[in-house]
Specification:
Blueprint: E1 2-8, H1 15-27, E2 32-37, H2 52-63, E3 69-71, H3 74-77, H4 84-92, E4 100-106, H5 107-110, H6 119-125, E5 127-132, H7 138-145, E6 154-158, H8 166-174, H9 185-194
Parallel strand pairs: 1-2, 1-4, 2-3, 4-5, 5-6
Length: 202
Amino acid sequence: MRIGLLGGTFNPPHLGHLVCAQEAHLQLELERVLFVPAQVPPHKAVDDEPGVGHRLEMCRQAVSGDERFEICELEVKRPGPSYTVDTLEELHSQIDRHDELFLIVGADVALGFSGWKEPGRVLSLARVAVAERPGTRRAEVERVLEPLCEQGRVRFFDMPEIGISSTMLRHRVRAGQSTRYLMPARVRDYIDQHRLYTGNSN
């Protein structure tokens, strides 16, 4: 089985995340894609943090009804920084030895891969599936990843340009502006119900 992993803070999850997961699923012929919300991202603080429980539940709402996507709670349940290498080690202890993991990242993230914890070990535990984005050339990504892994461990897939970010959505919520068509309706409803990103969350 070919399993994709899409990690992030998902604060909040939006259509860009879902399209990325869908394109990886389609182009790399994955059986399923796991959304892996981080409890404590190791490289940056979570802005406007509503609480990891809310971010986890928003991910559940985002993928609800789509059998291709599932939620992985390993990082949410593990204390301390959410290092990818630790998550991959845990997953390998749970899956069949014939299963293959694909770590889904944007090209911009892939360029900083050498700064991750044990990047060589990460690349031995999973293939890296890189979403190609405007402004980042494939050759640049290959130059960064080539010294860290064997040939064939990096796969590229096309990602439509979608100008949506979690930061933008939080600003729109705070300003009382519509986020319709930018995130799943279930996520919008959850944000409204719990008054997230307004300074009055419950």
